[in-house]
Design goal:
Length: 111
């Protein structure tokens, strides 16, 4: 049974993080391996400024952490179970509704 306040808040926070395609790409990239922001921006082909905003969001949500590495800072998933959760969620969604698309909430009031 869900603990009303905490479990729902945690799931909603995870959902908000996944609601943005760039944040999904960041999480999937970090699932493969920890990365430095400059390398991650190059890999995802987005500006460093834009990436920085998304990394800050993911960090504030508690999904990624920073690890000091000399003069640089590396990003990684906050817990290895997040990588497994992303794999499981992706597999489950594809299995259940591979032929569906989600219309933006602004257009239809869903999602």
């Amino acid at each position: 049974m869900l603990t009303i306040a905490t479990d729902i808040e945690v799931l909603a926070r995870f959902g908000r993080a996944l609601a943005d395609p760039i944040r999904c790409r960041v999480l999937l990239a970090l699932r493969e391996a920890p990365a430095y922001p400059a390398d991650l921006a190059d890999k995802l082909r987005i500006s460093r400024t834009r990436l920085s905003n998304h990394l800050a969001c993911l960090r504030d949500c508690g999904l990624v952490v920073t690890v000091p590495d000399g003069r640089r800072t590396r990003y990684e998933l906050a817990d290895e179970r997040l990588g497994h959760a992303l794999d499981d969620l992706r597999t489950a969604v594809v299995a259940v509704a591979a032929d569906r698309t989600c219309v933006d909430a602004d257009e239809k009031g869903c999602c």
